[in-house]
């Protein structure tokens, strides 16, 4: 049978996307819904989620949750299955960065907060999705890492540690819970609220230096996430994909 290349469809699938009220998570939720998935959007602020839902087409719903809270993961997974009948795709996208500075100078509160949202959240939400759905019917987990998880650098060391651990968790879980596929995405600088300070300070310079001559947009990341979640990517698991406009090539070229 001839299959039209890259006809990325999520028809018949149910996706749960964390951090979906803005930025990359919103773009992923919108693109997955446009590709045929039923989508549950979650983040902490219900009013922002409702505003995003009002602009979306397709079978979508919203629920407020805190990703650092394992109970919230259980409840949100259960609510998604209750609302849509199943769960096929979990996107652990929500992330935070409350601290800029040398690793050894971080206080315990901001260390814990960064790990709570960026690592503990994806781990316990994945466990909840596995127990409630994927153990019986294999699904897909997508973890939003960062290029910062692949290299050391100034200012973002604590955040980068959480993303490095998330990349390792991706590989570890892929081995433990296959045939459920577990994948990571490691974006470079993407224009969102989260990255506003970096975009304001370095955006123009970086865009000129990148081989593709522009910064990333949430849609760039959403396109990759939707492909990885689809059956077209059914032989891919355990890997984390860098998507950075060629920033790594620039580094390699010196
Ligand atoms: N932008 C970049 O340049 C870049 C680069 C590499 C990786 N990333 C990663 O990409 C992901 C998305 O980033 P973004 O740039 O789209 O960020 P963003 O625009 O700040 O959006 C973050 C989303 O996460 C939600 N969120 C934050 N803390 C949460 C919590 N404790 N519980 C539940 N939801 C929470 C926010 O909603 P509420 O405030 O309503 O909770 C929001 O929907 C993050 O994991 C980030 O580390 C971003």
Overview of this structure, please?
The protein is α/β, with parallel strands linked by helices and 254 residues long. It has one domain (14-242): 3-Layer(aba) Sandwich (Rossmann fold). It is built from eight helices and seven strands; from the N terminus they run E-H-E-H-E-H-E-H-E-H-E-H-H-E-H. Helix 1 (23-34) packs across helix 7 (218-229), helix 3 runs parallel beside helix 4 and helix 4 (108-134) runs parallel beside helix 5. The protein is globular, with a radius of gyration of 18 Å. The mean pLDDT is 95. The structure holds NADP nicotinamide-adenine-dinucleotide phosphate.
Cα-atom Rg, whole angstroms?
18 Å
CATH superfamily: NAD(P)-binding Rossmann-like Domain
Number of strands: 7
CATH class: Alpha Beta
Total helical segments: 8
* Shape call: globular
> Low-confidence runs (pLDDT<50, min 5 residues)?
none
- How would you characterize the largest beta sheet? 7 strands, parallel
Major sheet: arrangement of strands:
3-2-1-4-5-6-7
Could you tell me which ligands this complex binds, including any ions or cofactors?
NADP nicotinamide-adenine-dinucleotide phosphate
Binned, the helix content reads 40-55%
Helix/strand class: alpha/beta
CATH topology: Rossmann fold
**H and E string:** EHEHEHEHEHEHHEH
Number of domains: 1
The span between the termini is 47 Å
What value does the average pLDDT take?
95
Give the DSSP E fraction (strand runs of 2 or more residues).
5-15%
